[in-house]
């Protein structure tokens, strides 16, 4: 059974820095490299990799990591994939929320007896892994993998860090996908306003619909024009919806956590007001418990600030 994980206020300040950073760098096929570097600093490991896995096609469609390197013998990986409990767990269970370790499934001896360890993992010098998944299409997952060689396993603190960061990482990956596809990165309110504009609403009608003043609507439109690099309502609608259509980003285009107006309040809560918190059950909590696998619903205690 999983015991409580303790995070210091220094941990929380570091997490706040991660989620508050505005990153202008090219994310490539995955996440901004600076974000991976910050994650590696918070969850000490020998390597961190982000990769897209398609279990149906037996393929990896992208990969990035620190440090970069050879992906290993992929024929061996796929030969043992479905027999390796932690590797195939997201596909077998449908649980993409829990942060899992190899030791959630195997003892050290059991792990060393698996074909995956013998033919794929041991040649890379890896003993311990900690994995977080983000959803993709059916049969596809985006996986964030931390690896260590011989020595201490990943702790409940490490698991708690990733569980707390998971919503931000999902948002960061979605933002990177928008940049890769050329879909404008607008706020949820801006998308809502643009839909009204596309439906023929005037500024005054849109203001009444949204409960805003006309001056606020005009300011939103000015910001939209700047982001889309256009100068008219028609051009804004054309630019936004021509690229966004099949992806419908308005459902999840809210600002990243802890940014803008809420950032100062979150900062104050994290540094002075919070002393205990819990990571909410993921919905797969009971199934994990039945399998003897710790979930991300363990209590997290915030160590009190020393005077």
Give the % helix: 40-55%
CATH architecture descriptor name of the largest domain: 2-Layer Sandwich
Largest sheet: 5 strands, antiparallel
Side by side, the strands of the main sheet go 3-2-6-5-4
Tell me briefly what this model is.
This protein is an alpha+beta fold. The protein has helices at residues 9-20, 33-42, 74-80, 85-93, 108-112, 115-121, 156-181, 188-198, 203-210, 214-228, 233-244, 263-273, 285-291; strands spanning 5-7, 47-54, 59-66, 100-101, 128-135, 140-148, 276-278, 299-302.
Notable traits:
Beta-Lactamase, 307 residues, 3-stranded mixed sheet, alpha+beta, elongated, Arc Repressor Mutant, subunit A, 13 helices
Describe the protein's topology:
Blueprint: E1 5-7, H1 9-20, H2 33-42, E2 47-54, E3 59-66, H3 74-80, H4 85-93, E4 100-101, H5 108-112, H6 115-121, E5 128-135, E6 140-148, H7 156-181, H8 188-198, H9 203-210, H10 214-228, H11 233-244, H12 263-273, E7 276-278, H13 285-291, E8 299-302
Parallel strand pairs: 1-8
Antiparallel strand pairs: 2-3, 2-6, 4-5, 5-6, 7-8
Explain how this protein is built.
This protein has a five-stranded antiparallel β-sheet with strand order 3-2-6-5-4, sandwiched between helices. Strands 1-8-7 form a three-stranded mixed β-sheet. The protein is elongated, with a radius of gyration of 22 Å. The protein folds into two domains: 5-182 and 257-302, Beta-Lactamase, CATH 3.30.450; 188-252, Orthogonal Bundle (Arc Repressor Mutant, subunit A), CATH 1.10.10.10. It has helices spanning 9-20, 33-42, 74-80, 85-93, 108-112, 115-121, 156-181, 188-198, 203-210, 214-228, 233-244, 263-273, 285-291; strands at residues 5-7, 47-54, 59-66, 100-101, 128-135, 140-148, 276-278, 299-302. The protein is built from 13 helices and eight strands. By secondary structure, it is of the alpha+beta class.
């Amino acid at each position: 059974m999983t015991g409580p994980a303790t995070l210091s206020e220094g941990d929380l300040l570091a997490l706040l820095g991660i989620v508050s950073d505005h990153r202008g760098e090219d994310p490539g096929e995955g996440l901004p490299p600076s974000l991976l570097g910050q994650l590696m600093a918070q969850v000490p490991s020998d390597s961190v990799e982000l990769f897209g896995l398609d279990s149906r096609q037996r393929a990896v469609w992208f990969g990035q990591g620190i440090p970069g390197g050879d992906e290993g013998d992929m024929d061996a990986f796929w030969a043992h994939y479905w027999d390796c409990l932690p590797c195939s767990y997201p596909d077998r269970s449908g649980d993409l929320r829990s942060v899992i370790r190899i030791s959630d499934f195997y003892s050290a001896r059991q792990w060393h007896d698996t074909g995956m360890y013998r033919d794929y993992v041991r040649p890379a010098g890896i003993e311990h892994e900690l994995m977080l998944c983000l959803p993709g299409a059916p049969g596809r997952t985006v996986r964030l993998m931390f690896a260590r060689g011989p020595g201490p396993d990943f702790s409940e603190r490490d698991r708690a860090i990733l569980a707390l960061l998971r919503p931000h990482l999902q948002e960061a990956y979605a933002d990177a996908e928008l940049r890769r596809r050329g879909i404008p990165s607008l706020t949820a309110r801006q998308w809502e306003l643009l839909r009204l504009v596309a439906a023929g609403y005037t500024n005054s009608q849109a203001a009444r619909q949204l409960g805003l003043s006309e001056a606020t609507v005009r300011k939103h439109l000015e910001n939209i024009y700047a982001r889309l690099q256009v100068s008219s309502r028609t051009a804004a609608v054309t630019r936004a919806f021509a690229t966004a259509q099949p992806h419908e980003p308005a459902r999840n285009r809210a600002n990243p956590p802890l940014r803008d107006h809420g950032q100062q309040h979150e900062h104050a809560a994290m540094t002075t007001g919070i002393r205990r918190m819990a990571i909410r059950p993921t919905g797969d909590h009971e199934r994990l418990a039945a399998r003897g696998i710790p979930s991300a619903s363990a209590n997290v205690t915030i160590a009190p600030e020393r005077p």
